[in-house]
Design brief:
There is one protein chain. This protein has a domain at 32-147 and 190-195. The strands form 2 sheets. A 6-stranded antiparallel sheet has the order 3-4-5-6-7-8, covered by helices on one side. The termini are far apart. A hairpin with a 6-residue loop joins strand 4 and strand 5 (110-118). It has 3 helices and 8 strands; from the N terminus they run H-E-E-H-E-E-E-E-E-E-H. The longest helix has 14 residues, at 50-63. The protein is 11% helix and 25% strand.
């Protein structure tokens, strides 16, 4: 069984934006080491690089903005890891970005986003208001297939919620609701530590 826990938009980007030099993060920008809760570590994509551009393009697409709408990026982290906990199969590798940014020409268009890309699509998975921090319940929203919103970071987690759910993530919040019919949602424990301090 597969439960959709995010909206995917398949976007065709120009080859120039996705290939070539600058596609790997620079060692001079902030980065975080690999750990059990951030299995591949995280890095800040270089300004102008394909890794930075693709994340902003996903946000533009979700907001209905054009390529000429530019953002001031306060913080961006790129990290890779397993599929979201609500996706039972297939358990593919996922690229994720945490982005805190605001539109240069209209600072009221601002937010915090977690965007993701797989071999079958890409898009904004979760969003929270600009200027907030953490992952407390009620702060973030995700969107399911028919546009229904859900809470991606619901504590507490118990063993009864299944093999992908634990609360020992090193950051506030868990991705399981504490009810008899709870369905696990949100990023997996193996990447939650990549969000620590955001």
């Amino acid at each position: 069984m597969m439960r959709s826990t995010f909206s995917i938009v398949i976007v065709s980007l120009s080859t120039a934006a996705c290939a070539g030099a600058g596609s790997e993060p620079s060692a001079t920008l902030p980065q975080g080491p690999a750990s059990p809760t951030c299995i591949n570590g995280w890095a800040t994509p270089d300004p102008g690089s394909a890794l930075r551009t693709v994340a902003i393009d996903m946000i533009r697409m979700s907001l209905g903005l054009s390529q000429s709408d530019t953002f001031v990026v306060d913080q961006m982290r790129y990290f890779r890891g397993p599929e979201d906990v609500g996706i039972i199969a297939p358990r593919r590798d996922v690229e994720r970005w945490y982005v805190e940014a605001r539109l240069r020409t209209d600072p009221s268009v601002a937010g915090r986003w977690i965007v993701r890309r797989t071999d079958v699509g890409e898009g904004v998975a979760y969003q929270a208001p600009y200027g907030t921090t953490g992952y407390e319940p009620g702060l973030w929203t995700g969107e399911e297939g028919e546009g229904a919103e859900y809470e991606p970071f619901n504590p507490p987690c118990t063993a009864a919620h299944g093999p992908y759910c634990t609360c020992d993530w090193g950051v506030s919040g868990c991705s399981c609701a504490d009810s008899a019919s709870a369905i696990c949602t949100g990023p997996p424990p193996e990447v939650m530590g990549c969000l620590a301090g955001t």
